[in-house]
Specification:
283 residues, alpha/beta, 9 helices, 6 strands
Length: 283
């Protein structure tokens, strides 16, 4: 990392020891034709992605002591297009599950969607309006395990129905985690999802909210995906839809979840603005 001052989102030595070997293995498999090793270390590239995810800054506003857009975006796009972002995430997820005393691959998932407002530069062809929530933008669908760790991500226009997203999520779950045989969903996922789940070997069960209980009540099974959505919102790049391509929005989600996983695996935490404010009051 050189002599620069560290940002709160930077990987520590312990965290880099967790994720670094996977990226180094990727680089070894993709040598430069000229033999050039690259000007920037992969650790700094990941620090740059984590910084942008956490702060939500534009590409042109990346700090001068981090790799510039040209280098950061090159690797971000390469890892997005060849699936490296998800491969690394899934390997770390398996480690996190084993650390928690679980098997590497889950047998059950929870599905949910979240509508995100889009920035004005996001192409209209990839956005829409969620008729129920009145949100113009995109919709992020997640499938998470019992620990709240992400198994599948789908990003579509907000006008796409939960049913259509649920079908795509189940297909992704089967493709990457065929051990799953059970899925819990809310009332937004209708019969089409249950039928498709049955065809793919997954029992889909609706967990409905009580109409007689006042106030917020965490629902069994479903609360874990709500918690995951909450942790993703700590990454400001995901609070609003800034990505021109839905695939980039999916990649952003993988990297945000990867940042959460390396902290879980190393028992560390990223300092929040609240922590910084409380420290300044004590000083």
């Amino acid at each position: 990392m050189g002599e620069r001052a560290a940002y709160p989102s930077d990987l520590t030595d312990e965290q880099w020891a967790v994720v670094g070997p996977f990226l180094q293995a990727w680089k070894d498999r993709h040598p430069s034709v000229s033999g050039h090793q690259g000007r920037y270390e992969l650790r700094e590239i990941v620090n740059s992605i984590f910084y942008q995810n956490r702060t939500g800054c534009q590409w042109a506003y990346l700090p001068h002591d981090l790799p510039p857009k040209s280098a950061t975006y090159y690797y971000f796009a390469r890892w997005r297009d060849d699936g490296t972002d998800q491969v690394i995430h899934d390997l770390l997820r398996c480690q996190a599950r084993e650390k928690a005393g679980r098997r590497e691959d889950p047998t059950a998932v929870v599905l949910d969607t979240q509508s995100i407002r889009a920035a004005n530069h996001v192409p209209a062809a990839t956005t829409g309006k969620d008729a129920a929530k009145k949100v113009p933008g995109r919709k992020r669908g997640l499938a998470v395990d019992a620990l709240g760790l992400i198994i599948a991500v789908v990003v579509t226009a907000a006008s796409v129905t939960d049913n259509a997203i649920g079908v795509r999520l189940l297909d992704n779950v089967v493709a990457h985690t065929p051990t799953v045989t059970k899925a819990w969903v809310d009332a937004g996922f209708k019969d089409d999802v249950q039928i498709h789940g049955a065809v793919r070997g997954i029992d889909v069960e609706q967990v409905l909210r009580s109409d007689t209980t006042a106030g917020f009540v965490p629902l069994a099974r479903r609360w874990v995906v709500e918690q995951t959505n909450g942790t993703l919102m700590l990454h400001r790049r995901l609070v609003r839809e800034y990505e021109s391509r839905p695939a980039s929005a999916v990649s952003r989600t993988w990297w945000a979840s990867t940042a959460n996983l390396v902290r879980r695996l190393t028992g560390t935490a990223t300092t929040s603005w609240r922590d910084q404010r409380s420290r300044s009051r004590r000083c």
